[in-house]
Amino acid sequence: MSADRVLYDWTPDVRSYAVRLGLSLMGVECRMQAVDMDLPAPHHADGLLAGECPPVLECAGVRLTRPGTILHYIARQPDVARAWLDPAHEWAILNWLDFGVSALDTLASARGAALATAMPVPPATGALDAVLRRMEDHMAVRAMDGHDWFAAPAASIADVMLFVVFALSADVGVERDTCPALRRWARGLRALPGFAVMPGVPDYA
Amino acid sequence: MERWHSVSVLSDIRPGEVAGVRIDGHEVVLWREDTPAASLHAWEDRCPHRGMRLSFGFVRGDAMGCLYHGWQFGAAGRCRLIPAHPQVRVPASIHVRAYGVREHAGLAWVNMEGTDGFPDHATHWPDDVQPVRSVHVRRGATQLRQAIGLEAVDGMAWRGSVGLAVHEPVAGQAMLHVVCARSGEPAPTPVALSHWASRLRDAVESGNPTATIMGELA
Ligand code: FES
């Protein structure tokens, strides 16, 4: 089933990492087509359309370019465990997934700007702070209710997306002792089978 | 009390867990043994081998292992195993600096200067206490203490059954630790207290008055 599924993947891109991590955790095979967006446009990769930016998933006639939609699509595949998009908690999962995608868009542009100019990555911005606060407040209460994950009894695609947000916050200088609830949650995700690290982002918290 | 810093609610440091915390900018690793005794330790967060942070490491029974090359440290911070040279008797000079640590009133207290001087008045705090949560506040400890009416020498402020403590991980930032005594007056639920702490944090950070929020506890 992997043969007809292609992911256009740009290794250092955070949204591409979110999709790779999701594929790996959900145990889905996919042909990877490496893209280098640092090269001039004609050399990005064969098959990438003008103006497109990874991640792009091409599969059975659909072409998806948004990381949240790609994870949603993968979680719906028949051979993927239902827990990743648990029907009983689907709306909560999709809500937190969307929250994570917006946060990642914000982070990616800040990070992209910093990398492009070879400047030091800027310190935690107000926007990222607000995002992490909401996540920390939510997981503190979830833990009190005996839950380990953001939106469902088991890890879901929301946790995947939000993990990338949290992992990157270390990169912009957010210390782990300021978000104890997220630290515990992230450890749980890191311990799942299929967990994969992001190049350049330390694998600890 | 000033030398004893409340660094974490106890629910955030369960058996087998490791947590890096900072006290006035000093990095401290807090870890709990994965043994029946489940003793709590607070050490300098620095491996004597190559200086990496021990808080990235792991607990193995009653020892703390460094993530990088697996050196293991036991009671009082002494190195007891170097995996690359398992047959070597490790000299006692190889050790991590251990700090004073106490578990009291639902909190972990650390003294970087020694183990003595845990204040007498702390013995009057309730014993049967439920840890609620530690909340990060982007304001200095002095400002946060003022907002909750806590004198630094007191260590904790009690409002009814709710106990509050503050420490400063680094200048200009504070952690607010919230606990709740199980006995005594009817108390807010942990979830309600968690939301309360978030609102207090937001008020302190935006410079708004906190008297009304504090008044909810009385
Ligand atoms: S740095 Fe800790 S074992 Fe090498």
TrEMBL record, chain B:
InterPro entries: ARHD_Rieske_2Fe_2S, Cholesterol_7-desaturase, Rieske_2Fe-2S, Rieske_2Fe-2S_sf. Coiled coil: none annotated. The keyword Metal-binding applies. One of its GO terms (molecular function) is 2 iron, 2 sulfur cluster binding. PROSITE patterns: RIESKE, RING_HYDROXYL_ALPHA. Residues 5-110 form the Rieske domain. Keywords: 2Fe-2S, Iron, Iron-sulfur, Metal-binding, Oxidoreductase. It holds the Pfam family Rieske. PANTHER family: 3-KETOSTEROID-9-ALPHA-MONOOXYGENASE, OXYGENASE COMPONENT, IRON-SULFUR DOMAIN CONTAINING PROTEIN. This is Rieske (2Fe-2S) protein.
